[in-house]
Amino acid sequence: ARQGTALEVKALDSFYGLSRALNGIDLVVAPGEAVAVLGANGAGKTTLMRSIAGLEPPRSTGEVRLAETRIDKMPAHIRACSGVVLVPEGRQVFPELTVKQNLQLGAYARKGIDLDTEIEAMFVRFPRLKERIDQRAGLLSGGEQQMLAVARGLLTGPKVFMLDEPSLGLAPLVVDELFASFERLRIEGMTIIVVDQMAGHALALADRAYLLETGAILKSGAADIIAEDPLLEAAYLGGE
Ligand code: ATP
User: Fold this and answer.
1) Strands 216-222 and 208-213
2) CA 223 to centroid of ligand 1, rounded, Å
3) Pocket test for ligand 1, best of 12, 13, 25, 47 (most atoms within 8 A of CB)
4) How far away, in angstroms, is 12 Cα from ligand 1 center?
């Protein structure tokens, strides 16, 4: 049985300057639920993730709650420490730092954890990273950089783990490997929001999905129902 909500977004509007990118978004994620956010290029998926994480731009109005706590007035770093963790689009790692240093940075604000143990746990999740522990992150393959970005995000201690287009530009086998790691997280009870262009993978992972079009929610529902919905294809074809 679901107990309460992990994340709730109410009447969220987001703007770049005067231009409105999100219009009245309502979204709820239950604890342990995996939710997919789908839509064409420019629909507002990244803007929604950034708004929840408190990153600027955009500028947002509306309510964002982590469990019972209003977080929409909090700066991004406080939201991250509170457990709203975004792995941004484009596998952003620090290219000049080693794999290990990147991982250490993920956990920098956490107190009372055994960092070495936590990092070892990431190497169990992503064995490829262990082989590259002392390499500069910029020298990793695209897939390995994305795994590093995910591992770093996990070390931040997420309560809600948001993944923005994790499969972008990666080979199919690597995408399978990544999504297998997300599936493992889901089984462990992590609350996940995944944005993806490849709706198939995201929908297979997710319990529920939201379909965005031009900054508004066109439809939401059980992932297997959305997967069959003609609006899904229409939304993607309707992109810029
Ligand atoms: P993509 O898959 O391309 O990332 P998306 O669904 O994530 O698409 P957003 O990137 O959130 O869409 O863009 C939503 C709208 O906001 C688009 O109209 C886009 O042009 C606009 N937008 C995004 N970023 C900015 C920005 N930094 N400045 C101005 N407008 C922006």
Assistant:
1) antiparallel
2) 24
3) 47
4) 15
Q: What is the pLDDT of residues 53-72, one digit of tens each?
A: 999 999 999 999 999 999 99
Q: What is the pLDDT of residues 1-10, one digit of tens each?
A: 456 899 999 9
Tally Cβ neighbours within 10 Å of residue 68.
8
Best residue among 46, 91, 195 to mutate for probing ligand 1, ranked by most atoms within 8 Å of CB: 46
Strand 160-164 with 191-195, pairing:
parallel
Write the single-letter amino acid at 164.
Answer: D
DSSP 176: H
**Three-point CA angle 85, 227, 220, nearest 5°:** 60
Q: Identify which of 223, 219, 171, 216 has the alpha carbon closest to the alpha carbon of residue 194.
A: 223
Beta bridge partners of residue 10, listed in sequence order: 63
Q: What is the ipTM of this complex?
A: 0.95
CB 191 within 8 A of CB 160: yes
Closest residue by Cα to residue 221 from 236, 232, 234: 232
Q: Which of 229, 199, 235, 233 is nearest to 217 (CA)?
A: 235
Give the atom of ligand 1 at the shortest distance from the alpha carbon of 197: 2
Cα of 46 from ligand 1 centre, angstroms: 7
